[in-house]
Design brief:
Elements (H helix, E strand, L loop, with lengths): L4 H16 L3 E7 L9 E7 L2 H19 L5 E3 L6 E5 L3 E7 H7 L1 H4 L10 E2 L8 E2 L3
Parallel strand pairs: 2-5
Antiparallel strand pairs: 1-2, 3-4, 4-5, 6-7
């Protein structure tokens, strides 16, 4: 069973919102075959705690506006190092760059299929190459 079209739409909207807030290294994976509780993960990183929180705010606003969905659970917002947004169908991880390297979620889920995102974020950050939906 692959991620649903609804989940993919939410992931892509969240990726656009994250890129607009200069998130780096956006990666989405379809975990539906390995994890029965959600369809997909979006992983993004930022250089500072303030930027992590700005990305989270941007994602939440975009998903409310475009899909009328709110996270059922939010963890880590106060510290701004690793914020997890649980939307049931998808889970979003926004991590400080140091935490991203240390916890290596990308490697942990590397055997899951990648989800193509409609955004390209340069390694230095920025949303110069955002592809419109």
């Amino acid at each position: 069973m692959a991620a649903t079209d609804h989940s993919l739409s939410i992931i892509r909207t969240a990726a656009h919102a994250a890129a607009d807030k200069l998130a780096e290294n956006l990666v989405a994976v379809d975990v539906s075959e390995r994890l029965g509780i959600t369809d997909a993960f979006l992983i993004a990183s930022a250089e500072s705690e303030r930027q992590v929180n700005a990305i989270v705010d941007g994602i939440e606003e975009a998903l409310i506006e475009k899909h009328d969905v709110r996270p059922v659970r939010r963890e880590g917002r106060g510290l701004g190092r690793w914020v997890l947004l649980d939307y049931v169908d998808i889970v979003i991880h926004v991590q400080h760059q140091e935490d991203r390297v240390f916890y290596a979620l990308d490697r942990l889920w590397s055997d899951c299929p990648a989800i193509e995102l409609p955004v390209e974020v340069p390694a230095s950050g920025g949303a110069e190459n955002v592809v419109p939906e």
